[in-house]
Amino acid sequence: MILCIFTTRRINDIFLQWNKKHLFLCFLSGFIGVFCAQLSFCLGLKTSDARFTSPWMLLNPIFTTILGLLLGYEKFKKLKTIGLSASLLATGGLIILKASTSEVGTIYKPTCFLFISSLSNATAVIIWRKLLVEYKLSSLIVTAWSLIVGSIFMIIAYILEPYWFNQVAFHDLTTSLKGCLDILACCFTIMLGYGITYAILTWATHKSSISIVALYASARPLFTVVLSFIINKDKPWITATSVILLGIIFYGLILSSYSKKKEKNAKLNQKIKEKEQWFKSIFARPVSGKYELLQNPRITMKVT
Predict the structure, then answer these.
(1) Is the pLDDT reported for residue 28 higher than 80?
(2) What is the number of domains present in the chain?
(3) What value does the mean pLDDT take over residues 240-249?
(4) ∠ CA 176-182-184 to the nearest 5 degrees?
(5) Which of 19, 72, 222, 276 is the most exposed place for a label (fewest CB within 10 A)?
(6) pLDDT tens per residue, range 289-301
């Protein structure tokens, strides 16, 4: 919000000209895209492990493209359907593989949390697309609203946490000063990383299509698989199978994004043809030493 004040210097711009629809969508982007997505992801990570959690990130671009198709932002194409089907099947196989090799007791609770997280991320991208592309809002202001609304709900959730578990007494974070400083440093680093990530995502959503933005955002699980192989010392066949499934997933996502690019080029060529026909309809070829305007045949020009 401080960055917004320095950038806009006008209170009406910060509060989106007091437009109720814009304010409501910015509120939803913070509640769904930051609070629901991150809280449910952390709960899923807490009730499972990183090896089981990482494949669920790959559902973000798949859910984003599916929501875009349902809401009319994307169009059904043969390549897009094939790519989404391949990515969805490979993601399901990767989740099953990680569930069978991880040390998680029950997978029902983390599955529920992670599914909500992926669906919330996809919904947030759709909302950002509407705010940035259709309503032409600043990406900095949208990012600030998302983070502020999400942070407020995070604080409220922390205050209400003891009552959720029927524990009236609050839990102290730590009694050590060094521990408090470490926690604050970690929280600052995480919030800074989220701020940069959401700023880049909102800017990229404004400049490109939602399916392509979600495609590049899905590269995180690849690094998770590599780090898991190095740190946790996974078996070679598990890592090899994971890499193969990731390759199928990325191929499917690239195939669906290529369909979007092909469709965009076709629209561009169609616009060029329409402009050429428009110019031809205005200026006719010379007839009997005169230029005739087809739109107004009474007006003629002599040939010099």
Answers:
(1) yes
(2) 1
(3) 74
(4) 105
(5) 72
(6) 444 444 444 444 4
Judge whether 113 and 176 are in contact, CB under 8 Å: no
Alpha-carbon span 270 to 13, nearest angstrom:
37
293 vs 262, residue with greater confidence: 262
| Model confidence pTM above 0.70 | no
Question: How far from 229 is each of 53, 97, 118, 234, 288, CA to CA, in Å?
Answer: 15, 14, 24, 5, 81
Please say whether the dihedral angle defined by the alpha carbons of residues 142, 67, 266 and 270, taken in this order, is positive or negative. negative
Most confident of 29-33, 138-142, 165-169, 209-213: 29-33
Would you place residue 7 in the very low, low, confident or very high pLDDT band (cuts 50, 70, 90)? low
Q: Which two tokens stand for residue 268?
A: 């561009």
- Measure Cα distances from 80 to 23, 85, 193, 246, 297 in Å: 33, 8, 32, 18, 48
CA distance 304 to 291: 11
Domain extent, residue 187, equals: 2-302
Cβ count near 19 (within 10 Å): 14
Nearest to 121 by CA among 52, 186, 197, 19: 197
> What residues have CB less than 8 Å from 76, skipping those under 6 apart?
69
Give the pLDDT score at 31.
93
